[in-house]
Structure formats: C-alpha cells, structure tokens
Amino acid sequence: MKALTLLLLLATVLGLTSCGRQVKARQPVSYHFEPGETALLQDGLAYAPKNAPEAVKRAIQAGNRLQDKPYKWGGGHAVLDDTGYDCSGAVSYVLREAGLMNGQMPSSGFMKFGDRGAGDWITVYVRPGHVFMTVAGLRLDTGWGGGRTGPRWKPMSRPGKGHVMRHPAGY
C-alpha cells in the first residue's frame, strides 16, 4: 500500500497522470486581425483567410449560421440543428459541421477532445461547466462580457486562465 501511494505521488509530480498532461491557458484569449492569418470579422460575420484549410472554412461558415441564435440551456444536444444553443452545443455544432467530430458532447467531454494544447487553426478552451473555441484566431463564445448572449463571434479579450486547451488533430 505504501509503495502504491508513493508511485501515485511520483506520477502526479512528474505529470504522468491524465490531469498532469493537460495544457492550461495562462494568457487572455485575444483577437488581433492579421491579413491571411486570422479570420476577418465584419458586421457580425467571420470570413476565413484564403489559405485556411477547408475544414476551417466550414467551421467559420457553421459559426456564422449560429450568430442569430439565442442562448438555450441544453440547446444543440437533443436536437442537433436547434433553435438555440448552449456553449457545448455551439462548439459541437461547429466541429461537427466542419467534419471534425461526430454527434455532440457536454462541456466536460471536451476535456479529452482531440489533442492537447493550442491548435494552429482551431483551439477549444474548456473548464468545468463551460467551453468556447477560437477558429482562425476569432473566438466563438456564448458568454463573457454581457452574459449568455447565445453563440457569437467575439473580438474582445476574455481570461483564458483555468481553461484547458484542446484542438482537433491537425488543426
């Protein structure tokens, strides 16, 4: 028993447990437009950089379709093409429409989604009870800075601290 306790303690200290392998955001999530590198936000709609992979372009198109939807607790789960979306329903919708996942999952499911760390094109930020994402540098979120607005592209910064970063493999 003592040996098992020491082994678990050592694994935790060395970062060999599943919690130790997570990459947590430490900086605010900020949007800075860079031509050809990030999505352009104009009149509430996002436009993908021309050189973005097709899946990223599909993700942006999917996010644009959500812009007039209200926040709806549980939205996007029982009905995939819903009248409103919560945070995990919106992120699931965008990733599904981009061809990067099947079905949907609650926010806690994103703790193990894809690969760890920030992606080159898409990053999912998750903490207990909330998930949001960036696509080509632009944040899609249902909250922060104005309450539960429904899924919207948001150029203003928000704290990233406390969120684990995950991304679809290759993106």
CATH fold title:
endopeptidase fold (from Nostoc punctiforme)
In total, how many domains does the architecture comprise? Answer: 1
> What would you call the shape?
globular
Give start-end ranges of low-pLDDT stretches. 1-20
The assigned structural class equals alpha+beta
- Helical fraction: 10-25%
What is the CATH domain class? Alpha Beta
Brief digest:
By secondary structure, the protein is of the alpha+beta class. Helix content is 20%, strand content 19%.
Overview of the molecule:
Helix 2 packs across helix 3 (87-97). It contains three helices and nine strands, in the order H-E-E-E-H-H-E-E-E-E-E-E. The radius of gyration is 17 Å and the shape is globular. It has a single domain, classed as endopeptidase domain like (from Nostoc punctiforme) (endopeptidase fold (from Nostoc punctiforme), Alpha-Beta Complex). Helix content is 20%, strand content 19%. Strands 1, 4, 5, 6, 7, 8 and 9 form a seven-stranded antiparallel sheet that branches. Strands 2-3 form a two-stranded antiparallel sheet. A hairpin with a 2-residue loop joins strand 5 and strand 6. It is of the alpha+beta class.
